[in-house]
Amino acid sequence: MKDFQSEQSTLEDVQEIVARMCRQEATTYRRSDYLTMDPTLEVEVADGTWRQRIIEWMYGVVDHCSLRRDSVGVAAIFLDLCVERNLVESRQEFQLAAMTALQLAIKLYDSTMVKLDSMVKLGRGQFQIQDVVEMESKLLAALQWRVHPPTSLCFLRQYLQLVPSSVSSMTKYMLSEVTRFIAEISVCLYKFVKYPPSAVAYATLVTAMERIGDSVLAPWQRQEILTRAANTLDESVIHSPMMMEIYHLLQASLQKNVNLEHLLKTIEVQCGGVDTFVHSKKQVVMRGNSYYEPCDPPGHQHSPRDVVQ
Q1: Which run of H or E residues covers position 235?
Q2: Which segments constitute the Cyclin C-terminal domain (predicted)?
Q3: DSSP 288-302
Q4: ∠ CA 243-175-25 to the nearest 5 degrees?
Q5: Tens of pLDDT along 217-259?
Q6: Which domains does the chain have, with CATH numbers?
């Protein structure tokens, strides 16, 4: 009885937090498909491939400095808003905005500081400290000092609080790691920019659970997790064509990425050799009238960085 009351209280808390973040993502931090809206940006500022390389560079920086990877998701939103709000007009300014966005995100979200002169050195002499300071001022003014955007990882953190107490701690860890991996891929790829992070997070949760074997996460547990997560969002979003689009884009992006399989195998060893992910069989998860069918596991012949654009 106590467990039920505790889980019900958690659900209500998560619903309130998610509702607040959904309002933020739809207003203050809303991003659009700016490259389609203004095709000249692809030529003069950045295309999807260049943006992906920049975001991957950000992950490389935080890993090298042993910083929180969550900061990159925030920095990516800052960077997209820089472009969308006409703060950059060239590829060089795009790089400057990326460096500034990452520096700002680290200052806000990490307990370890990276000195500004150290960050500038990463620009290989293209920028001076004053350039970063001025770009930061422009960015903060454009954001009206609202610098706490809800990312897909923010939503996933809330959804994962709804995992039933019957799920083992190791399975919770596995689910957390797999959802993080998939979410970070969506951060890198421009095609996810136009979608609300809340919806990307839900589709990520579905995709992650499909890749974990039934012996680790029982079908009824999957259904319970999805039902609880869905209860935090508007039902029209859960069953929308947009949600299916995001789901299929995630599937396509994972087909040529072997890092996920490597991650699952590593966790499998940590779990004592249990079968942690789905091999040949297909599993279908249903929410209302929407069916989510997983693709085959990624193969070994592709580079870990080889994702479908």
Answers
A1: helix 235-238
A2: 150-280
A3: TTEEE-PPPPP-SSS
A4: 40
A5: 999 999 999 999 999 999 999 999 999 999 999 999 988 777 7
A6: 30-143 (1.10.472.10), 152-271 (1.10.472)
